[in-house]
Design brief:
135 residues
């Protein structure tokens, strides 16, 4: 079990750190008149590429089922975590964090698919390119 949970927590932690850096950079860019739509698209692109690349490495090093299970955990935890972080950050007098959570709950499957979709493809390709074991 720890061969799946620990790697999933490490990957989720790295994603959380990158997400925190993204929000910090977004605040700085907003002060300079930055484009929020472009920043959001950049965030999605980074998530997709990072998931694909890291899962590719996992597919080369681990059993395919194990690699996909790791990334399914990452996708679930990250998508829920991002929703909660956004709700806390964006809560104000017009909408509380609970209202934002309820209103934006539909984003969980979308965010999870940004992580899990490319990860499954990356892990499968990594597994297919794995050196064959001598008999």
């Amino acid at each position: 079990m720890s061969t799946v949970v620990v790697p999933a927590l490490v990957r989720t932690g790295v994603y959380a750190a990158v997400l925190a850096a993204f929000y910090l950079a977004l605040e700085l860019a907003d002060g300079l008149g930055g484009d929020a739509l472009g920043a959001g698209l950049l965030a999605f692109t980074v998530i997709v590429l990072a998931s694909f690349a890291w899962a590719f490495v996992d597919g080369r090093r681990r059993d395919l089922t194990q690699a996909i299970l790791i990334w399914a955990i990452v996708a679930a935890v990250f998508s829920i975590g991002w929703l909660v972080a956004r709700a806390v950050i964006e809560a104000d007098a017009s909408m509380s964090a609970i209202e934002l959570l309820t209103h934006d709950a539909f984003t969980i499957p979308f965010t999870a698919s940004l992580v899990l979709g490319p990860a499954v493809v990356g892990a499968a390709i990594g597994q297919a390119l794995r050196p064959s074991q001598p008999a």
